[in-house]
Amino acid sequence: MTVALEKPDTTPQTEPPAPPVTRVRRVSRRAMVAAILVAWLVLFALLRGKQTLTLAAADLTDLHRWFNDLNDSIGANRNSNPLFLYFFNEIRLVIDNLVTFVQELISQPSGTRPVPQIGWLGVVGIAGYVSWAVGNWRVALLAVAGFTFLGLQGLWQESMDTLALTLSAVFVALLFAIPLGVWAGLSDRFNRIVTPLLDFMQTMPTFVYLAPMTLFFLIGPASATIATVIYAAPPAIRITAHAIRSVPETTVEAADSLGATQRQALLKVLLPMSKRTVVMGVNQSIMAALAMVTITALIDAPGLGKTVLQALQSLDVGTAFNAGLAIVVLAIVLDRVTTAASTREEAARKSSGRFLAWRRPLLGAGAAVTAVLVYMSHTYLWAAEFPGEGATGSKIASAADTATTWAQDNLSGLTNAFRDAITNGLLNPFQSLLTDSPWWLVGAALIGLGVVLGGPRAAITTVVCVGLLVGTGVWSDAMTTLASTAVATVLVMLLGIVFGVWMGRSPLVDRLMRPTLDAAQVMPPFVYLVPFLALFGATRFTAIVAAIVYAAPVAMKIIADGVRNVPATTVEAATSAGCNTWQIITKVQLPMARGALTLATNQGLIYVLSMVVVGGLVGAGALGYDVVAGFSQGQLYGKGLAAGLAIVLLGVMFDRITQAAARRTSA
After folding, report:
1. In Å, how far are 96, 153, 558 from 64, measured between CA atoms?
2. Nearest CA to 384 among 373, 392, 394, 371?
3. Of 26, 36, 69, 556, which has the highest C-beta tally within 10 A?
4. How does pLDDT run across 419-459, given as a tens digit for each residue?
């Protein structure tokens, strides 16, 4: 039988036509932000002045009265409640004794002595010797000159009170911060737990720490020191953890292979190799403590902060300038000494061996001279009390007053025009939008911006913060503070972009500007208010300008680093394609530095918020005024505490949105 085979079909088969692809066009974030703002403006025009939750300065809500009652109840039961009797009161007693001991050592009369145990000559000698021992002779000369200048200003005792509180707080903070930082460096789990807490603590402005401290520890040096400890500890914890984690793994593995225990590896390898970075953490804690100590004058802490506060309240620019200058001098000395300590070993390796051979005998001779100076200051009145009546300080104050009068007489037209342009062109319209819109409209707009810029998690945080802000009863004041913060942040970013790009593109400009920016970040917030009080008077604009100057350095440095990190090959490719300088900046460097821009916005917001709140001392009003009034007027304590909570909520909301935006931008 023959089987016929079919010839296979070789004709090409035609595929059925593919269905048309429907492309969904994604809406850009800019378009969504613009849509939210347009909708807000339209509804604002229709609903202006309705449901604004305005509260008069003397009015209280039920929450404020509850805080007042809580404060009264704690005060009445402070010496009978076991929690206070055996915990809070004991902590206050220990801290009080520590502060009193340091004060009697260098600043306050001790027992039957009319002067401290160590007078000015001994303190100057110790400052010079310690600076030389941990740093170098240049830093020692700076320390001696700086401390002597404090006495010439007529502010020796005030300066030593500030130094005593700072040293006490840093000592206590480091007792906890270094071990916790080491633990966070060794344990991933503990690091994950502690990092959000540290972020939260560093987000809060300095004002916020004060009211809770007075609730538990009363007004005075103990509350001031404890608040300073809490504020100064996070930098040391974070930097110590980073230092431990930065030790090369190969070094740790080599120690393990030699049979080192975990304790030996920590003490012989990890800590010695991370010492320089840990000292940098100590530096940051000292700077944070000094900034906080000046602010704690609001809760009756002694020192230079109280002098500045009283001068600001009486608009005495000369006295405020003299005391502010003393704070700057003290900050520079402490910063330079600790910075030199972190680099001493590296500098010693670069120096000649002959000097190293003589260093130990010279240190011994220096210790003997310092002991003689301490003995003399303890024994003789002329070496204990700083001679003179502060003629240099009087001249500085007089010169500052003269300059203030001249500026007000000759520059008032220019300064008033600048102030009015910013106030009427930016601040007033935006403040009206926030304070005259219904609260639910502002909340919805903020939540929408949180969703678009930060994503779902940031939006959830914004929902919680908005709800709690309404509950604080100071919604209108919070919106006023938000307006000032937003306007100042916009101006900070304009300055940051202009100068940051300039620094990022020019190494020479960076070398010239960066030391000034570093020095500006050392100065406590109080200091920035003084010159602008002279120029603009006691107004909210004074606080805004001070906030801009306070926050601009950090924004400039972050943007400069971001621009500098753009690959050189990319810039060269754009140049070879015919792009001019403006096109390279706007089309290449700034777009590729978006992460740095967002981070700069985050840090600028936090710095600005802190300073705007401090501006409540010079007429900024809003939440800053509420906090200050809460300390000075007992019936407003609850409102001040609620205002402090509102500041925290604003800070957390800003921080979460901008951090999430930075992560999404860099992803």
Report:
1. 30, 43, 40
2. 373
3. 556
4. 888 888 888 898 999 999 999 999 999 999 888 888 888 88
Burial track 243-264 (b if 16+ CB lie within 10 A, e otherwise): bbeebeeeebeebeeeebeeee
Neighbours of 36 (CB within 10 A): 18
CA distance 431 to 46: 17
Sequence-ordered list of residues with C-beta below 8 angstroms from that of 199, at least 6 positions apart, any chain: 655
DSSP code at position 267: I
The terminus-to-terminus CA distance of the chain in angstroms comes to 74
Helix axes 156-186, 304-313, angle to 10 degrees: 110
Answer whether 423's CB lies under 8 Å from 541's CB.
yes
- pTM: predicted TM-score of the whole model, two decimal places: 0.81
Yes or no: say if 202 and 137 are a contact pair by the CB < 8 Å rule: no
Q: At what angle do helices 89-106 and 210-217 cross, to 10 degrees?
A: 110
DSSP 630-656: HHH-GGGHHHHHHHHHHHHHHHHHHHH
Locate 230 and state its tokens. 């809490």
- Confirm if 660 and 455 have CB atoms less than 8 A apart: yes
In this structure, are residues 453 and 661 in contact, taking their beta carbons and an 8 Å threshold? yes
What is the DSSP secondary structure assignment for residue 8, as one 8-state letter? P
CA distance 556 to 523: 17
In whole angstroms, give the CA distance from residue 284 to residue 235.
6
- Reference 462, options 488, 486, 444; nearest CA is 444
Nearest to 452 by CA among 27, 24, 26, 32: 32
Cα–Cα distance list, 185 to 177, 237, 274, 384 (Å): 12, 9, 11, 45
Q: Name residue, tokens 């300038």.
A: 321
Picking from 501, 461, 483, the residue whose alpha carbon sits closest to that of residue 596 is 501
- Residues 612-648 pLDDT 10s: 777 777 766 788 888 888 877 778 888 988 988 898 8
Selection from 157, 169, 517 nearest residue 323 by Cα:
157
Q: Please give the full DSSP string across 132-171, using - where no structure is assigned.
A: HHHS-HHHHHHHHHHHHHHHHTT-HHHHHHHHHHHHHHHH
Taking the CA atoms of 229, 232, 234 and 236 in sequence, report the sign of the dihedral they define. negative
* Contact (CB, 8 A) for 666 and 600: no
